[in-house]
């Protein structure tokens, strides 16, 4: 979207000159107090250029300064660039004192004013993003997300953080299970003690037991000295067992004993060592199904999952997609000193249409390469390795009934996501009744939407 710049100046020549200099923007004008305030309210411009000498007394800066003060009072984030005549340094300084962003002396030089406006705009955008982030960062500051879906999860996590309840974090790969585990720890009374994470899937089965429980000197060949396991290193703090579903069945019994009795024995050891830790587990696997086919112990399942928390996949967090994308764009732009600073409309549509099977981790990877690869300042779908949505989803058929079916199914899915899976809201967004919605779900075989209710 093109940014709007408000030019407050009574000189038609200067108005024209500024319009010509700022062709990248939507420039709107005002030539006195009333029209300036009306335009400010109407367009909410991030940047205003303001001539201080305005009627009724153009020779005096008082009207300009009055407008400036009122703009700052009405919209404090507005960046006002004050334009002054020669020898008006005093007024310029006064204006900066009142909250103007910068000042500029006539005659107007096209390149300089362009530069000033761009700088002001960048700053305004940065401040705007920071304010969104600040709002988004509830107690759990690591977790970026505005969607209802993620906010509910944050609330649940905040509540259980204060307790020692075993929490099971469920969700697809890359949805942020480890981030949640760390946040729960940081909001718990154990926050000053260690947070120790171990991934049960990445450690070979024969080493996992000694990694977790530690071993005594001489317990096996190569055990040259007594070594603490992850459980003991987490003493007083939190142990995060990632991919608990991948824990070998043999080791599950030992794990269960530790969770029930809160004591461990090192491999090759005879002493029971008491441990006081909180355990948070995570998995992307379907544990109930594993319990059913006996590859996961039922008693352990209930022990680790006193409170399960389901972290939604990114594709169900519609409004977070762009927020996260902008957050990562800013981070990587600084990290790689790159020039990319925004997304094209097509890139935004492509991101919203993408299924994100790898969730936030996939988004980080895509953003990182896009920031490095982008030729200009605007990131395109291609830079993200995404197909433009228009080309991708344009139905190839010319059969009108099929075209309509495809379009309707797509609209239903979008409304469903936007309304956070609420059927009444979905129907409302689509402008149809709930019974009609249900009959459309049947008609178009959108069973997955029904099962989620
Ligand atoms: N809400 C969030 N805000 C910002 N960054 C996030 C958020 N959630 C996750 N991330 C980032 O996304 C990446 C993946 O998160 P994390 O490792 O926690 O996912 P995971 O579900 O544990 O993945 P896996 O199951 O593959 O281990 C990390 O780099 C993390 O910092």
Give me the secondary-structure topology.
Blueprint: E1 4-8, H1 12-21, E2 26-30, H2 33-43, E3 47-51, H3 62-74, E4 79-84, H4 89-98, E5 102-105, H5 110-136, H6 148-161, E6 167-170, H7 177-186, E7 195-199, H8 205-213, H9 230-233, E8 238-242, H10 249-261, E9 263-264, E10 273-274, E11 278-283, H11 287-292, H12 298-304, E12 307-310, H13 318-336, E13 342-343, H14 345-353, H15 359-373, E14 378-379, H16 389-393, H17 400-418, H18 423-430, H19 434-443, H20 447-451
Provide structural commentary.
The chain has 453 residues and is α/β, with parallel strands linked by helices. The chain has four domains: 4-135, Rossmann fold (3-Layer(aba) Sandwich); 148-310, P-loop containing nucleotide triphosphate hydrolases (Rossmann fold), CATH 3.40.50.300; 314-388, Orthogonal Bundle (Helicase, Ruva Protein, domain 3), CATH 1.10.8.60; 395-451, Arc Repressor Mutant, subunit A, CATH 1.10.10. It is 49% helix and 13% strand. The protein is built from 20 helices and 14 strands. The protein has a five-stranded parallel β-sheet with strand order 2-1-3-4-5, sandwiched between helices. Helix 2 (33-43) packs parallel to helix 3. The longest helix is centred in the first third of the chain and has 27 residues, at 110-136. It starts with a strand and ends with a helix. Bound molecules: adenosine-5'-triphosphate. Keywords: ATP-binding, Nucleotide-binding, Phosphoprotein, Transcription, Transcription regulation. Residues 4-121 form the Response regulatory domain. Pfam families: AAA_lid_14 (PF25601), HTH_8 (PF02954), Response_reg (PF00072), Sigma54_activat (PF00158). InterPro entries: AAA+_ATPase (IPR003593), AAA_lid_NorR (IPR058031), CheY-like_superfamily (IPR011006), Homeodomain-like_sf (IPR009057), HTH_Fis (IPR002197), P-loop_NTPase (IPR027417), PEP-CTERM_resp_reg (IPR014264), Sig_transdc_resp-reg_receiver (IPR001789).
């Amino acid at each position: 979207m093109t940014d709007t710049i408000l030019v407050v100046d009574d000189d038609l020549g200067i108005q024209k000159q500024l319009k010509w200099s700022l062709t990248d923007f939507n420039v709107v004008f005002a030539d006195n107090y009333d029209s300036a305030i009306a335009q400010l309210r109407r367009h909410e411009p991030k940047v205003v250029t303001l001539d201080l000498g305005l009627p009724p007394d153009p020779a005096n800066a008082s009207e300009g300064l009055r407008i400036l003060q009122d703009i700052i009072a009405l919209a404090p984030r507005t960046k006002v660039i004050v334009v002054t005549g020669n020898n008006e340094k005093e007024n310029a300084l006064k204006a900066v004192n009142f909250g103007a962003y910068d000042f500029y002396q006539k005659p107007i030089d096209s390149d300089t004013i362009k530069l000033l406006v761009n700088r002001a705009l960048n700053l305004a955008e940065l401040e705007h993003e920071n304010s969104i982030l600040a709002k988004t960062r509830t107690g759990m500051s690591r977790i970026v997300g505005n969607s209802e879906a993620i906010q509910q999860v944050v609330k649940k996590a905040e509540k259980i953080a204060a307790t020692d309840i075993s929490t099971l974090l469920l969700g697809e790969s890359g949805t942020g299970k480890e981030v949640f585990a760390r946040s729960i720890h940081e909001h718990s009374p154990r926050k000053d003690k260690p947070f120790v994470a171990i991934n049960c899937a990445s450690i070979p089965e024969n080493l996992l037991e000694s990694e977790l429980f530690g071993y005594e000197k001489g317990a096996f060949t190569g055990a040259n000295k007594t070594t603490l396991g992850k459980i003991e290193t987490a003493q007083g703090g939190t142990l995060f067992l990632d991919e608990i579903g991948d824990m070998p069945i043999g080791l599950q019994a030992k794990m269960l004993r530790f969770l029930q009795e809160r004591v461990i024995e090192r491999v090759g050891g005879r002493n029971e060592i008491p441990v006081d830790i909180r355990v948070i587990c995570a998995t992307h696997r379907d544990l109930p199904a594993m319990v059913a086919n006996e590859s996961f112990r039922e008693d352990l399942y209930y022990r680790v999952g006193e409170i399960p928390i389901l972290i939604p996949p990114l594709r169900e967090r519609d409004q977070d997609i762009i927020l996260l994308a902008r957050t990562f764009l800013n981070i990587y732009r600084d990290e790689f000193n790159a020039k990319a600073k925004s997304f094209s409309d097509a890139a935004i549509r492509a991101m919203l249409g993408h299924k994100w099977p790898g969730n936030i981790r996939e988004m980080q990877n895509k953003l990182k390469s896009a920031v490095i690869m982008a030729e200009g300042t605007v990131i395109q779908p291609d830079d993200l390795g995404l197909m433009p949505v228009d080309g991708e989803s344009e139905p190839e058929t010319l059969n009108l009934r099929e075209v309509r079916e495809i379009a309707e199914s797509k609209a239903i899915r979008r409304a469903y996501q936007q309304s956070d899976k609420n059927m009444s809201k979905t129907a409302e967004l689509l402008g149809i009744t709930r019974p009609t919605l249900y009959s459309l779900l049947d008609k178009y075989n959108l069973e997955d939407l029904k099962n989620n209710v």
